[in-house]
Amino acid sequence: MARVDYFNDPQAPKANSIVPSVTVVALNEAGAVLLIHKTDNDLWALPGGGIDVGESAANAAVRETKEETGFDVEVTGLVGLYTNPAHVMAYDDGEVRQQFSICFTASIIGGELRTSSESKEVAFVSPSRLGELNIHPSMRMRIDHGLADRREPYIG
Predict the structure, then answer these.
(1) Which domain range does residue 51 map to?
(2) Number of domain units in the chain
(3) For the whole model, what pTM was predicted?
């Protein structure tokens, strides 16, 4: 399903749903961040997705990372809570979703790199190369916060 992201856009459609979701900042031994090239909006992003009924946020982070990248992870901390009502995603089925994302840090504990129906590429990207990729500003904020080793989680 295709989607269009709107960020601080007065012409954006009004949200009609909110779905709690997760994203994961996982680094390799060289300090490069695990990213996916998404199939739905053609942007680079952290692995993640919606939390299923009956699932904890941390378990959703582990599941979504495995599904989208092939890697097994262990959640190690909280980067922040991202709930900006001025960031909405419009899907081609008519849903317009307000952002609600919990971003975690995680350690890679196994698995092998692979793509999925949601990720046409999976890569470890050096922080110095992040500016070369097409990354949504809200996602870039999460990546930057995850790399900054903040003392307190971001709440916003």
Answers:
(1) 3-155
(2) 1
(3) 0.93
